[in-house]
Amino acid sequence: MAELLIVYHSRTGGSHQMAEAARAGAAEEITTHLLTADETTPEHLLAADGYLFCGPENLAALSGAMKEFFDRCYYPVLGHLNGRAYAQMICAGSDGENAARQLARIAQGWRLKAVQDPLIVCTHAQTPEDILADKVIPEADLQLCRELGQAIGAGLVMGMF
């Protein structure tokens, strides 16, 4: 039975909402585990058949907690995840492109297979108050997250990846 692991970090709630929406979509298709970056271990990665990584853009880069997850888990699983499917979602205040590139480079090192372009949801938070405020992701964007979760889940179950 195929399994999808969704790993996320969220400080102001945006990425958490996105990850939960993706989990809801994926759970219709596949056994799905949703874990924070802090609680995810190399063993979780090894047990999964595919991955959905979701994190915020902070200062034009991947959040520190997501980066720490990758730093902590990178070498223990290196060479053991080759060819597994992954997708990513970025909750951004501006464009999110640099965070997505950074995550893609890490995934490339693990030799994961990107199965979709990054899904970037822009909150347009540009002032200190807006950046630090709790986020509310619009339903249309949450629907895209659900669809991404469902698509990667269905693809894993069908053996497309």
Automatic annotation (TrEMBL):
Domain NADPH-dependent FMN reductase-like: 43-117
Pfam families assigned to the protein according to its UniProt record, in alphabetical order: FMN_red
One GO MF term attached to the UniProt entry: oxidoreductase activity
Protein name, UniProt field: NADPH-dependent FMN reductase
